[in-house]
Write a structure and sequence with these properties.
alpha+beta; two-stranded parallel ribbon
Length: 39
């Protein structure tokens, strides 16, 4: 949450993606996406 607060304070955009399984979640995590929804 601290990282998200810093991004917001700096006016940076926050990225969020949804993964439908663990293998896709792993790929998204490696890409450096800020928020990952799994399910």
């Amino acid at each position: 949450m601290i990282k998200l607060d810093k991004l917001k304070q700096n006016g940076e955009k926050i990225t969020c993606l949804t993964a439908y399984d663990a293998s896709f979640a792993s790929i998204i995590d490696q890409a450096g996406i800020d928020i990952l929804l799994v399910g």
